[in-house]
Write a structure and sequence with these properties.
Blueprint (H helix, E strand, L loop, with lengths): L4 E4 L5 H13 L4 E3 L10 H11 L2 E6 L1 H4 L2 H13 L4 E6 L7 H7 L5 E2 L8 H10 L15 H25 L2 H29 L8 H24 L14 H32 L2 H15 L5 H11 L1
């Protein structure tokens, strides 16, 4: 059965969840609310996963209680990775601080606060979204990028850039140095442009859809800086070195910090999903863990994540 709204909540917030579900049902908005919980031998996500997939809205009741629940977090991750259509809406029940990993996921989504929109008024807001699903919400459909081809193109660009720098250097005169400087400056500009592009994609409503794109932009930005460094080193011992006196430390730090934060976030999601897979034995939770691991490993190698991946693939 298809539902308009899937409600993700902590059992400790059942009273509020029931009130919201009743209010939605009264105005003809169908909703799914899991009342049974996850039993020890229950194949949880196979029931919930299909319901999330077919729901038009994933409504997350955000509270101190739900922040502590591994299962609500698993539902959110599944929605982001697999929701084929529709959107995700966090409904903030209290003023407790949202954990950093959830804020990373939900930071670019328009939140609805209980203080501004009590449960009885929520159906009107939900109806607006159902009538215009792209307004102020985030879709969770996963997009797979063509990584091998794009990485190959990046490698070709690196090779051509280094070769050009070497050829310029062999001329050894001021004219060649100026040509080298143009290349040096263009790679720095390219790096800065790619960092901004990654930030732009990270601020889009569908930020989770562009995760792979953001990672590739950041890796390309790092590569562009490496090229600029290579050109600068070619002139380290000659009289033209002053031309290359551009400080790229701030740019390099920004790229590194963004990569680090994405790696930490996806690593944490991967481990939490893995633990849930061990509890539930669910194939969909296994796939969710693999998706998170692959995101993290696309940023940098990690032996512990590789071990988890091998364990999941057995």
């Amino acid at each position: 059965m298809k539902y308009d709204v899937f409600i993700s909540y902590s059992r400790k917030d059942s009273e509020t969840a029931d009130l919201i579900c009743s209010a939605l049902t009264e105005v003809g908005i169908s909703c799914f609310i899991d009342k049974e919980g996850i039993g020890g031998g229950e194949n949880f996500p196979e029931v919930l996963a299909s319901t999330i997939d077919s729901s038009r809205i994933f409504l997350f009741l955000a509270s101190a209680n739900s922040y502590k629940s591994k299962f609500t977090k698993a539902e959110i991750l599944y929605a982001f990775n697999h929701l084929r259509s529709g959107c995700i809406i966090p409904y903030i029940l209290d003023e407790s601080e949202m954990p950093a990993d959830l804020e990373f996921l939900l930071g670019n989504v328009n939140w609805i606060r209980k203080t501004a929109c009590p449960p009885k008024q929520l159906p009107a807001e939900i109806r607006k979204v159902l009538d215009s699903p792209d307004t102020g919400t985030i879709g969770g459909r996963k997009v797979r990028s063509r990584w091998p081809l794009r990485i190959l193109l990046l490698a070709v660009a690196l090779s051509v850039g280094v070769l050009a720098a070497i050829l310029f250097r062999q001329n050894g005169d001021k004219s060649a140095a100026l040509q080298d400087y143009k290349q040096f400056e263009s790679w720095i500009d390219r790096s800065d442009s790619l960092l901004k592009e990654a930030a732009r994609k990270g601020a889009m409503p569908n930020t989770l859809e562009t995760t792979s794109e953001q990672i590739l932009d950041l890796q390309s930005a790092e590569a562009a800086l490496c090229l600029s460094d290579s050109i600068k080193k070619l002139h380290a011992a000659d009289e033209h070195i002053a031309l290359f006196n551009i400080n790229t430390d701030a740019l390099r730090t920004s790229i590194s910090c963004k990569m680090d934060s994405m790696f930490v976030a996806w690593s944490n999601y991967a481990r939490e999903s893995y633990e849930l897979f061990r509890i539930t034995g669910s194939p969909s939770e296994r796939q969710n863990a693999l998706d998170c691991i692959n995101h993290a490993l696309s940023i940098r190698p990690d032996s512990s994540l590789e071990s988890l991946k091998q364990s999941l693939n057995k």
